[in-house]
Amino acid sequence: MNKHIKIWSLVNVDRGSKVRWTANELGYEIEEVRLKYGEHRTDPYRAMNPYGQVPTAEFDGEIMIESTAICLALAERHPESGLIPEDRLLRDEFWQVLNLSISTLEIPVVQYALSRMGIIEPDWAELWAGRLTPRLETFAGSVPKEGYFCGEFTLADICSAYVLRMGVQAELLPLEGPLAAYLGRLAERPAAKAARIFEGL
Predict the structure, then answer these.
(1) Which residue has the higher pLDDT, 130 or 12?
(2) What pTM value is reported for the model?
(3) 56, 116, 132, 178: which sits with the fewest CB atoms below 10 Å from its CB?
(4) Regarding the domain delimited by 88-193, which CATH topology (the fold level of the hierarchy) does it fall under?
(5) Which three-class secondary structure state does DSSP give residue 93?
């Protein structure tokens, strides 16, 4: 199997960072194309990704969009990595944590952060401000005091780390206690360092 991936992204900490981290965990050679802001909305890019979003990835001769879908596709190609647990009970927990991070939390956290940064309308931050914090605090309170979700490191940790990192950056969560320890453990992984996902935190 050709372990080469091409990733189109905007900055170090966008959704492409989840793909970069996953690819690094799996030992892929990464070719990264950094788009200028606005370039993701142009016709040449939309020919690959009609939604005009980042990231887009090319591997095994295929173009894929949606960061979590890309990560799952990579992990499924390498079951020996353990990024998706084989044990049924662990897999139940895996799907729960993964979906809490990407479905319940990621979109509102990213919209809130982008709104606070002035990239999208300020109404988004106002919309999510009251509803988001209790959910994010509940999720942050569930991080393991030792090790990782599901016991061993999995893709659920990558997706959780991204949303929690964004929550800290947006000042929705304090970086302290078990959350700081959990993110600190993840930040020490060589693949996380190579992915640059914790830079500036």
Answers:
(1) 12
(2) 0.93
(3) 178
(4) Glutathione S-transferase Yfyf (Class Pi); Chain A, domain 2 (1.20.1050)
(5) helix
